[in-house]
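R.M. (postdoc): so does anyone remember the format we settled on? I'll just put the structure tokens first.
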């Protein structure tokens, strides 16, 4: 950078004193910038770029490079740290230019109005209503993943402790585990702690407990290419780094986005990372609903019928392969709107 500044000044035929006057920067500082003993501020970079007619991007990159080198020097882990930083910057940048479409703005306003209406009826809420809606959520979330139990059978397994003839042990455990996972995220929502890795792994542990115990609550061990299903594209797996970026993104954006968009984003991002051997879909939906519950919204229940399931998978696939999340956001928003309308109708009957 020092050479860029000095060469540009000399090409313009300016002395350090003259440049200092034009830029309103002390002459001694100009000399130190050119010798490399001092670094200009970002505002000074902008001024010098304009006065010396140096391409701003070129000068800014040189400035940032020197700041980075000054901080990390020749540390043995510098290159690895730079790679992690690069991935995180790319990950965090995706929200910076996000704009709500007219359709999204409209449905989010409708959702906010419904939530306000629901709050006015909270005195009529009851444990039985919540229990029935949570049972439906367990039934539908498991049905999306291929569980063949009916709603009544799911109820019998969870609330009556019965065994259903013709249903596998896995299907029984999926019902019990998912209901316990709902209880867990309800406790987390009440505590209102920031989403963290420990709680996410605990949710996954509950989902796979007794089904694949050696992988419950653990990331994939093998770094490989996942050849996904129709809604999960092939992708490189670098779980620890990806998950570090996942939680960093959440911390940066948790108070910037509408809760529906935040919840949908955290679902989609976890689904594309696909960090677990099994249980990624259920865990993604539970994380989404944890965020919604923390913000006072009811569970967004995605039904497991063929039409809804295909719409869900297709919108998720578009978000992941075409980098267009509009359909997925609208889908999740519509499911939340339906959940709010249903909840209000039950309370006002």
């Amino acid at each position: 950078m020092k050479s860029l500044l000095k060469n540009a000044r000399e090409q313009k035929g300016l002395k350090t004193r003259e440049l200092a006057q034009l830029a309103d920067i002390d002459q001694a500082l100009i000399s130190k910038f050119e010798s490399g003993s001092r670094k200009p501020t970002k505002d000074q970079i902008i001024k010098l770029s304009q006065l010396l007619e140096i391409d701003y991007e070129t000068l800014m990159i040189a400035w940032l490079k020197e700041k980075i080198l000054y901080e990390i020097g020749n540390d043995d882990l510098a290159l690895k740290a730079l790679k992690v930083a690069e991935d995180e910057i790319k990950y965090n940048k995706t929200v910076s230019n996000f704009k709500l479409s007219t359709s999204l703005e409209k449905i989010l306003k409708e959702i906010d109005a419904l939530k306000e209406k629901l709050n006015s009826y909270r005195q009529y809420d009851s444990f039985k209503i919540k229990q029935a809606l949570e049972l439906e959520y367990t039934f539908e979330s498991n049905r999306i993943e291929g569980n063949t139990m009916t709603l009544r059978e799911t109820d019998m397994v969870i609330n009556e402790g019965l065994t259903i003839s013709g249903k596998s042990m896995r299907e029984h455990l999926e019902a019990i585990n998912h209901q316990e996972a709902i209880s867990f995220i309800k406790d987390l929502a009440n505590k209102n702690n920031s989403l963290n890795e420990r709680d996410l792994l605990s949710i996954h542990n509950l989902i796979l407990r007794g089904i694949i115990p050696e992988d419950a609550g653990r990331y994939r061990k093998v770094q490989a290419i996942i050849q996904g299903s129709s809604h999960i594209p092939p992708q490189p797996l670098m779980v620890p780094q990806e998950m570090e970026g996942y939680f960093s993104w959440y911390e940066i954006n948790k108070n910037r986005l509408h809760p529906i968009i935040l919840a949908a984003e955290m679902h989609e991002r976890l689904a594309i990372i696909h960090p677990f051997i099994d249980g990624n879909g259920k865990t993604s939906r539970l994380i989404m609903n944890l965020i919604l519950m923390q913000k006072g919204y009811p569970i967004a229940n995605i039904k497991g019928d063929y039409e809804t399931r295909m719409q869900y998978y297709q919108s998720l696939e578009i978000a992941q392969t075409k980098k267009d999340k509009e359909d997925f956001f609208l889908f999740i928003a519509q499911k939340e709107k339906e959940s709010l309308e249903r909840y209000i109708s039950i309370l006002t009957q």
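R.M.: ...and that's the designed sequence above, right after the tokens. Also worth knowing: The two ends are 71 Å apart (CA to CA). The CA atoms of residues 300 and 339 lie 6 Å apart.
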